[in-house]
TrEMBL record:
This is Outer membrane lipid asymmetry maintenance protein MlaD. Pfam families: MlaD. Residues 39-116 form the Mce/MlaD domain. The chain crosses the membrane at residues 6-26. It comes from the Bacteria. PANTHER family: INTERMEMBRANE PHOSPHOLIPID TRANSPORT SYSTEM BINDING PROTEIN MLAD, INTERMEMBRANE PHOSPHOLIPID TRANSPORT SYSTEM BINDING PROTEIN MLAD-RELATED. The keyword Transmembrane applies.
Length: 170
């Protein structure tokens, strides 16, 4: 009888541990529900996407408004193309908006920041809709490039001054 009781306790702990592991996996994957929110797709071209991945967040001022849907390379221009799935509740974003790829913290995940443009119907500015393209993009800042620029600038760009020998006056 005692061994049966122990087996029930062990089984209960195993079930709790399994539920905790599933919960953590869903939290890490950032899955809020098994249903999907309705979205509309917008495309943009970037010179460099850095470490951007599919399902990375799209944010306005830190608020997640969508996800990166698909990343692909244009076969003619060989530039990275990014499809953004924006939640339909954010359907009033002006077409004059711009995109930039940023990093959370120094070495954190990369995300797409949407900088809201101006809304002026007299200038032909409309709201983004499914199938639109955002032309104004800024590429990802690659940490190695920033370090290289810093080292180049701190190394003294003009070496002629340091090697010149001052002339002696007689």
């Amino acid at each position: 009888m005692q061994s049966k009781k122990n087996e029930i306790w062990v089984g209960g702990f195993v079930l709790i541990a399994l539920a905790a592991i599933i919960f953590l996996c869903l939290k890490v994957a950032d899955i809020r529900s098994f249903g999907s929110q309705t979205t509309y797709r917008v495309t943009a071209a970037f010179d460099n996407i850095g470490g951007l991945k599919e399902r990375s967040p799209v944010k306005i001022g830190g608020v997640v408004i969508g996800r990166v849907g698909k990343i692909w390379l244009d076969k003619k221009t060989y530039t990275p193309q990014v499809d953004l799935d924006i939640f339909t509740q954010y359907d009033n974003i002006p077409s004059s908006s711009s995109l930039s790829i940023r990093t959370s913290g120094l070495l954190g995940e990369q995300y797409v920041a949407l900088n809201v443009g101006f809304d002026d119907p007299d200038l032909g500015v409309t709201m983004l809709k499914d199938g639109d393209r955002i032309e104004d993009t800024k590429p990802a800042m690659v940490l190695e490039d920033l370090i290289g620029q810093f080292l180049y600038k701190s190394g003294g760009g003009d070496h002629r001054q340091s090697s010149a020998v001052p002339a002696q006056a007689h």
